[in-house]
# Entry
Amino acid sequence: MPVAKSQSPSRSRSQSQSRRPLGKKTSRTKTSRTTRTTLLSLFILTLAILTALLGTTTPRLRLRQLLNHLTFTTPFTTTHTQTALTTPPTAKMTTIYARELEIALLAVQRAALLTKRVFTDSAKGTVSKDDASPVTVGDFGAQALIIAALRANFPHDAVVAEEEAAALRGDRALRERIWGLVRETRLADVGAEGLLGGRLEGEEEMLEVLDLGRAEGGRRGRVWTLDPIDGTKGFLRGGQYAIALALLVDGDVKVGVLGCPNLPVDDAAPLAADVGEGEEGRGVIFSAVVGEGATSRPLGSGALAEGKKIAMREVGELAGASFCESVEAGHSNQSESAQIAQKLGITKPSVRMDSQAKYGSIARGAGDIYLRLPTSKTYQEKIWDHAAGDLIVREAGGQVTDTKGNRLDFGVGRTLATNSGVVAAPAGIHAQVLEVVQEVLKLK
# Structure
């Protein structure tokens, strides 16, 4: 018996539709497309309204923040409590470099979470920097986080940083350890974290980001300088260290940020070698923008805290001044510093402190003079060791030069090749201090 050639209604419709020209759509298809278009338009309109309501940073950044907030489907892995995005995530910025300052502050603040975790977990009792030491882990991790944020926000800027990824490529255990920290470190505020550009995808991307710090610097274009842990020995001791980030434009410092996790928040705290160590509520972040003054604020774990202006202390009598220098004798000639203090009539003993925390301390009036005297005729200071601190002190009312009276030149390359030593002091007494420095060093 012949097989019937009839077809079910559903199959017939399907074949009929498949034979229609692509340009002809059914009314149902048109309705579906119209519905989707309407919903998408409403979604975009809603985002635009929320963007306008959310504050002062550029709409593009706020839009990115909202998209990150909407697409994060799992909580961040962090030791801090995640907060809802109910207020603008950062303090208001009005400077010409508002976006650069905001991103730099948040990037340094996030990196500080990682370095503090590294110290708490494993640094206590460590006294050396070898390939697998806690300070090495902190250096790489902090650098990866900061450069990732810079790349996301300023993809055409160059970066001059201390570390590069070569050592990690051949050490799987160390690489995995650092990647675990980078992957898990997040700001507690969703909006603030969103501004930094989202997560790195994996170990290989982390290595690529680390190697972005190999730029040579120079006098042209925008260049960020980064020292992820300035003050190795201070970090290992639980003393002072800094996360230092600065923006150079055509060789001049325009933005400077110093995160100092172990300095006291109180700007009036007296300068001492053990200041801040073991105290609760410590951690301060200094910042400056050229022509805008200098600021300090508590170093937090989420959105930025409100900042307040800082200024160097006016020194009436040099006998009452205080000065600070490096802990390590190899970094500064301490015997010559003592001679300079004696000639200036300073009776207080010098305060020896690691890192650019010294710049921040004198900028807020906790100390007065910072001397870094040459220990070698051939040694060249690295630009990442001074760029942020230099601007912060100058914007706080100070003056910073080398021992010959020249401004620090950050446009030569990766080092301060044309400078020798550092003399930082309030503008009113800098010339007097410099004169004695040159007398002791026999430069006159």
